[in-house]
């Protein structure tokens, strides 16, 4: 079966009108009939063309809406893949990627901090309160952290602060300001009491790895805990 011609009726009317136009001996009635048929088919063609255009415009609008939504969903998925759902801070995978990306070009300082006696908070007040403490701690850190400092949550109550192109002495001073900000005033209810954190700081030169930077800062954090918590200790080997 041959392909159907969508404009078969119009083509037929056009041929009939052309044939009529070519004849000089026809009466006015024949010309009028041919013109009438041509007008009818042309009107149908205009009507169908308008319908197709309207339908096409609607489909284009719908496709644009779908494309915008797909772009939005892709951005949301990328954000969720890189950020902690509770705090909005970077997650562990993103912290590793960020740290190693910076280390390819420059040295970085890394702060690792841990909320003191966090298990006691959960045991006494419950996990929802513990979550509220974590959220408020990150908010307090953000009031101190300058750009382009990047805060990440690498464990339950453990966090990192990635400090690209910052020397150890400046990073230690920043960690001390963060420690003071966390302990400055009671956390919001229902905790309603002072919460403290311990900090370990390291510096890793360009070409190093996240593991090196993290292990050095984590060892310093352990020493801060050993000394009684609520303190800042830096990696002696980096000084």
Strand order, biggest sheet? Answer: 2-3-1-4-5
Low-confidence stretches: none
Helix content: 55-70%
Distance between the termini: 86 Å
Order of helices and strands: HHHEHHEEHEHE
Instruction: Indicate the overall shape.
Output: rod-shaped
Number of strands: 5
Give keywords.
239 residues; alpha+beta; Alpha-Beta Plaits; 2 domains; 5-stranded mixed beta sheet; 7 helices; 59% helix
Secondary-structure map:
Blueprint: H1 8-22, H2 28-82, H3 92-103, E1 108-115, H4 118-125, H5 127-144, E2 150-153, E3 158-164, H6 168-183, E4 197-204, H7 210-226, E5 232-234
Parallel strand pairs: 4-5
Antiparallel strand pairs: 1-3, 1-4, 2-3
Explain the overall architecture.
With 239 residues, the chain is of the alpha+beta class. The chain has two domains: 72 residues; 147 residues, Alpha-Beta Plaits, CATH 3.30.70.270. Helix content is 59%, strand content 13%. The chain has seven helices and five strands. The chain has a five-stranded mixed beta sheet, sandwiched between helices. Strand 2 and strand 3 form a beta hairpin. The longest helix has 55 residues. The radius of gyration is 36 Å and the shape is rod-shaped.
Concise structural overview:
The chain has 7 helices and 5 strands; from the N terminus they run αααβααββαβαβ. The protein is α+β, with helices and mostly antiparallel strands and 239 residues long. The chain is rod-shaped, with a radius of gyration of 36 Å.
């Amino acid at each position: 079966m041959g392909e159907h011609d969508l404009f078969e009726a119009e083509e037929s009317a056009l041929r009939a009108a052309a044939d009529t136009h070519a004849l000089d001996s026809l009466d006015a009635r024949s010309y009028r009939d041919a013109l009438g048929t041509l007008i009818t088919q042309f009107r149908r063609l205009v009507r169908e063309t308008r319908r197709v255009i309207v339908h096409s415009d609607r489909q284009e609008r719908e496709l644009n809406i779908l494309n915008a939504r797909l772009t939005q969903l892709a951005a949301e998925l990328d954000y969720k893949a890189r950020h902690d759902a509770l705090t909005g801070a970077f997650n562990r995978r993103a912290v590793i990627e960020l740290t190693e990306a910076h280390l390819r070009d420059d040295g970085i300082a890394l702060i690792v901090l841990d909320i003191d006696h966090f298990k006691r908070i959960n045991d006494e007040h419950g996990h929802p309160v513990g979550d509220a403490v974590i959220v408020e701690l990150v908010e307090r850190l953000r009031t101190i952290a300058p750009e382009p400092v990047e805060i990440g949550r690498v464990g339950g109550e453990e966090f990192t602060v990635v400090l690209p192109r910052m020397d150890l002495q400046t990073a230690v001073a920043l960690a001390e300001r963060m420690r003071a900000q966390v302990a400055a005033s009671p956390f919001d209810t229902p905790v309603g009491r002072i919460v403290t954190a311990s900090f370990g700081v390291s510096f890793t030169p360009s070409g190093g790895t996240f593991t090196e930077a993290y292990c050095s800062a984590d060892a310093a954090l352990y020493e801060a805990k050993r000394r009684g918590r609520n303190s800042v200790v830096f990696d002696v080997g980096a000084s």
